[in-house]
Amino acid sequence: SGGGGDPRQIEETKPLLGGDVSAPEGTKMGAVPCRRALLLCNGMRYKLLQEGDIQVCVIRHPRTFLSKILTSKFLRRWEPHHLTLADNSLASATPTGYMENSVSYSAIEDVQLLSWENAPKYCLQLTIPGGTVLLQAANSYLRDQWFHSLQWKKKIYKYKKVLSNPSRWEVVLKEIRTLVDMALTSPLQDDSINQAPLEIVSKLLSENTNLTTQEHENIIVAIAPLLENNHPPPDLCEFFCKHCRERPRSMVVIEVFTPVVQRILKHNMDFGKCPRLRLFTQEYILALNELNAGMEVVKKFIQSMHGPTGHCPHPRVLPNLVAVCLAAIYSCYEEFINSRDNSPSLKEIRNGCQQPCDRKPTLPLRLLHPSPDLVSQEATLSEARLKSVVVASSEIHVEVERTSTAKPALTASAGNDSEPNLIDCLMVSPACSTMSIELGPQADRTLGCYVEILKLLSDYDDWRPSLASLLQPIPFPKEALAHEKFTKELKYVIQRFAEDPRQEVHSCLLSVRAGKDGWFQLYSPGGVACDDDGELFASMVHILMGSCYKTKKFLLSLAENKLGPCMLLALRGNQTMVEILCLMLEYNIIDNNDTQLQIISTLESTDVGKRMYEQLCDRQRELKELQRKGGPTRLTLPSKSTDADLARLLSSGSFGNLENLSLAFTNVTSACAEHLIKLPSLKQLNLWSTQFGDAGLRLLSEHLTMLQVLNLCETPVTDAGLLALSSMKSLCSLNMNSTKLSADTYEDLKAKLPNLKEVDVRYTEAW
């Protein structure tokens, strides 16, 4: 192949553009060459034809004088056909007449454009052995489109045959370069134009696996121009992955693969449809990490993907990078994940039972029960006795810790088939931390590289909200969460989330839905990932309290699950935890008297706790005095009043009997909700034309559950705040005129507020 024996073959290896298509002198049938400017001159672009309608005329070479007369242009018969340009031949949908038999591309000796002197027609001439096939199009553009499509199909067919049986690789390399040049200079504009050469080379490489490293690199460099605007096919991705693994320090990785991977990260929409693209990207990043500079090179690559500005212009970069990181981290623990069949199920861990005879012998595990003495030593007078189960293997050691005061869902009987939650199965006791996973050297390097990438991603302010949302469901296997090195390294990312003041970021620390565990539970004291004395837990609680507006729901969850750690950190002087304990007392979160006394003792043991508890007692005394003295039942604030004016007024007298408060046409905001919730008798509240927003509504819905009339006309409230009103079951009248109420939220409120009788939704979407 590629030899110099056949003049037609030599002619076909020339670039499609740049030569004159004029026919030699003596062109048959009275036709003269069509002298028109080609692509390089006129810049015309065409779509690759796969099928189409065209007029066909087949002329056999005339042998007698009579046959010459019958084949003259005045006596020719044209047939309409719907032709299909298959991979190896030109065929008709109705195989009759001239096109009874398909015309193989290998039989077409030449393709030319023709024009007629007398009556201009738009024709192609296909020279075949023993005759000529004429194709007549409706206009010049269609004729040129057929011409270039036939040329392309013919040449691709030739290259498939030439490269299917390679003899000398230097000749093959030359043919590949010519094929690439043909694709780059083709006037056809179609995805398959660049994909077809890549698929040919991909098939060639998959069938010839004994190539030298230099031949590998030569082929990669030859096809590099096609990869600038096209994803490599799956088999070619495998070839690239192999090159990254075997020669990570090759300059081909930096010079050729970098723009390819950048294009994948910027434009790929779904790695699930093309997993080998993800694998190639993964191997490329690992190859960068193997260079002398290591993570510095990877860091510069991430910076190049983000761009120099504060906002990345490519929205697909972050999701694709996170997908690559998650897949790479999963692969590090694949050996342990595949051995799950040999370990107790979560239900068996919870129920404390195992059937050894049903286990496979590859990784034998045993269920060990700690002695009662060890358990009793861990128990304190204020806490319930612990019941612990240890599951141990040669590679994984997990201890499950459970209290007798846990939620009913977590203390189900042994006959319950439901699985315990993730943190319940990975809970570690401080006295017996036996959790360890040993990774191989390669897996350990891979884990370190991709966790470092997650850290780099969390440093970009514009990427952090999306990153937090992607990681909120905890998309890592439980084996990774049981690995101390992984959770310790990932702690930096969680800290970045906890430090971000934006609610859409730090709210992702909580679970994605009820009944599931989140990063907040994982890194809280007692969680498998907690390796400090609760500093990260305290910072998470601090930032979440700011965004949750001190809701009872969040405090209740802390009281049920994390009261012990909160009291311990408050005892050590943590101001956030002291505030949490004071709020639990103020909102009557704790029902048990002994627990309340213990919280009070904890608060009085530190200076900051004693001061905040005294302030709490003063507020409680003022509230009781307010209720005892009574005061007016109706109050209207003057227009233009502010939050400070309202606070000053309510603190100046007794308003325990206040039932009707009008703040209409004032300048109050959601900040005044802190004072409104201290009015125990309030039943009617008018906020017409104020700046009271969603945050204030959420706080009111937590505390003023007896409110009956609420006017929100012309306020900036949205669905986010209005949905919180569904907990105010006593509402009889609700005015949402001229707000951002949607129809769905309105229907939801009507379903959840059974006493609602008067509703005003004029000038809203629900109107």
From TrEMBL:
Where would I find the C-Maf-inducing protein PH domain in this sequence?
A: 45-163
Q: Which GO terms describe its biological process?
A: in utero embryonic development
Q: Which UniProt keywords apply?
A: Cytoplasm, Leucine-rich repeat, Nucleus, Repeat
Where is it mainly found? cytoplasm
For this entry, the protein name equals: C-Maf-inducing protein
List locations, semicolon-separated: Cytoplasm; Nucleus
Stretch list, region Disordered:
1-24
Claim: Cytoplasm is one of the keywords in the record: yes
Q: Can you name the source organism?
A: Gorilla gorilla gorilla
